[in-house]
């Protein structure tokens, strides 16, 4: 039985290409950063980043992160660090042929340095490796800076989701990247 399970698990890994993401050092705008997969012990850092980026709000709770990190569906959750301090993260999960970016945040003092763009490009590679056709995300209507970054990476506006954000009932703009066009 164990042999059958191990075979099934390894085949599932090949089918979904949900391989471990090895820690590595990257250069972004002449600065060195380390990037790696998020583990459960990182959740406290993610919550701290959310508090800073979202003015004290926590769009995602510890439980939400736990559920995502332990989900059976193919997913990728990465964090990026400078001098061993977590400064940003991204998450995506695959639904059919779409890789949906569930969360992305970079500390305010590190925004505008290409870190968010780097993280999104990592998701693009992951989506391609999993034969996705699109990448989707929601962004606050008021977050023009993020929308600009997404457009620079090839995302296009799709639909408006009224009162999407529960804490203040702000609308969300859904944006989609068609991978065949990039």
TrEMBL record:
Which key words are in the record?
A: Acyltransferase, Transferase
Determine the domain of life of the protein's source. Bacteria
UniProt cross-references to NCBIfam families, sorted A to Z: rimI (TIGR01575)
**Location of the N-acetyltransferase domain:** 33-180
Transmembrane stretches in the record are none
Keyword Amino-acid biosynthesis on this protein? no
GO MF terms, alphabetically ordered = N-acetyltransferase activity
Q: Gene3D superfamilies from the xrefs?
A: 3.40.630.30
Classification via InterPro entries: AcTrfase_RimI/Ard1, Acyl_CoA_acyltransferase, GNAT_dom
Stored PROSITE patterns: GNAT (PS51186)
What Pfam families does this protein map onto?
Acetyltransf_1 (PF00583)
Q: Does the keyword DNA-binding apply?
A: no
The name this protein goes by in its record = Ribosomal-protein-alanine acetyltransferase
């Amino acid at each position: 039985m164990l042999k059958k399970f191990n075979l099934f698990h390894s085949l599932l890994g090949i089918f979904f290409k949900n391989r471990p993401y090895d820690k590595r050092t990257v250069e972004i705008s002449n600065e060195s950063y380390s990037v790696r997969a998020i583990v459960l012990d990182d959740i406290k850092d993610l919550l701290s980043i959310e508090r800073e980026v979202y003015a004290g709000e926590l769009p995602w709770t510890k439980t939400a992160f736990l559920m995502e990190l332990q989900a059976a569906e193919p997913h990728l959750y990465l964090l990026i660090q400078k001098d061993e301090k977590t400064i940003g993260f991204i998450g995506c999960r695959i639904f059919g042929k779409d890789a949906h970016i569930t969360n992305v945040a970079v500390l305010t003092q590190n925004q505008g340095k290409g870190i968010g763009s780097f993280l999104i490009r990592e998701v693009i590679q992951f989506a391609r490796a999993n034969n996705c056709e699109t990448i989707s995300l929601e962004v606050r209507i008021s977050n023009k800076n993020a929308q600009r970054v997404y457009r620079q990476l090839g995302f296009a506006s799709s639909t408006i989701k009224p009162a999407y954000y529960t804490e203040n009932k702000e609308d969300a703009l859904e944006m989609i990247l068609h991978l065949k066009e990039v």
